[in-house]
Amino acid sequence: MKRVSLTQHLVEQQRLHNSIPAELRLLIEVVARACKRISYEVSKGALGDILGSADTENIQGEVQKKLDVISNEILLEANEWGGHLAAMASEEMESIHPIPNRYPKGEYMLLFDPLDGSSNIDVNVSIGTIFSVLKAPEGMGEPTEEAFLQPGSAQVAAGYAVYGPQTMLVLTTGQGVHCFTLDREQGSWVLTQSNIQIPAATKEFAINMSNKRHWQPPVQRYIDEMLAGKTGPRGKDFNMRWIASMVADVHRILNRGGVFMYPADMRDPSQPGKLRLMYEANPMAMIVEQAGGAATNGSGRIMDIQPHKLHQRVPVFLGSKEEVELVTRYHAE
Ligand code: P6P
Q: The Fructose-1-6-bisphosphatase class I N-terminal domain covers which part of the protein (predicted)?
């Protein structure tokens, strides 16, 4: 395969589809460089002072790992001065992060989960960075939280980096899903997959089964019928995977199909699901839909949800189109 860099790919996409203005290309390249730095930090493991907890909590009330804080700082510092952004928002920060007055402002807004799956950091299991790009509303003065509250369909780009056996960057700007592998010797992102397509049917599902007793009845029935295997109503045997790192589970599904589910949990009706809409569900939904899959909250398309809070959570069912549509039908019965 001819070696194509991230920059060359983005310039080509701009030439072919006029979908990536120079400012957006430069923003994506800055985020990609930040993910490269995060990858280097993550790979130090015990050799760097980066494992364990930071003895602080984030807005979600979750204990922050040192790498959560380091990754957040890397993304903030890399993106503050470039002139592409009006503001940023992060899972690790309670409120939005306006660009300091000493720097030029841009027309985009960047949201990210700087290190998703951080419970896996200390046990050397794949983790990742998820990011979403919105346009700042026309005529916006000082950035506000409300300016971020746009449905996922308004995203102009979305992507993730997965820090696993290879470090990979998966990106969409609305013209398909493309995957880059980090060449550590040259420090460059190299295009290794173009126009990834998720198989429409699957025999593999991803869910945290330990929560089964807390799910709503339609999900319990859907899983029970799936587990009945070949002799059950589904007529086929299913396999299960759960990495507890959304980026890793989604990357597997992108490459070989599957359905990923984090359902609403009846323990806390005020918190439907665990995953966050703005910087986990929405970017992953854009990627999955661009790869021919589907992404719903059990009743409707995730990217149609009108957000009402920056850190709001949402149930997530995404992956192979046929399976996601089926589980959504169970909810409708
Ligand atoms: P559980 C990681 O904390 C995360 O946000 C996602 O990456 C992952 O899919 C999910 O939570 C795992 O949740 O309840 O199985 O630990």
A: 5-193
Residues in CB range of 89: below 8 A, 6 or more apart? 96, 97, 109, 110, 111, 112, 145, 148, 278, 279, 310
Q: Is 66 annotated in some ligand binding site?
A: no
- Is the CB of residue 159 below 6 angstroms from any atom belonging to ligand 1? no
168 compared with 48, residue with greater pLDDT: 168
142 labeled part of a ligand binding site: no
Q: What percent of the chain has pLDDT over 70?
A: 100
The answer to whether residue 55 scores a pLDDT higher than 90 is no
Q: Tell me the pLDDT of the chain averaged across its residues.
A: 94
State the distance from the centre of ligand 1 to the C-alpha of 246, rounded, in angstroms.
6
* ipTM associated with this complex: 0.98
CA dist 203 and 153 (Å) reads: 29
Which residue ranges form the domains of the chain, and what is each CATH number?
4-193 (3.30.540.10), 204-332 (3.40.190.80)
Q: Which residues contact 55 (CB under 8 A, 6 or more apart)?
A: 63
CA angle 105, 107, 108 (to 5 degrees): 105
> Which pLDDT score, from 0 to 100, does residue 250 have?
98
- Distance (Å) from CA 245 to ligand 1 centroid: 6
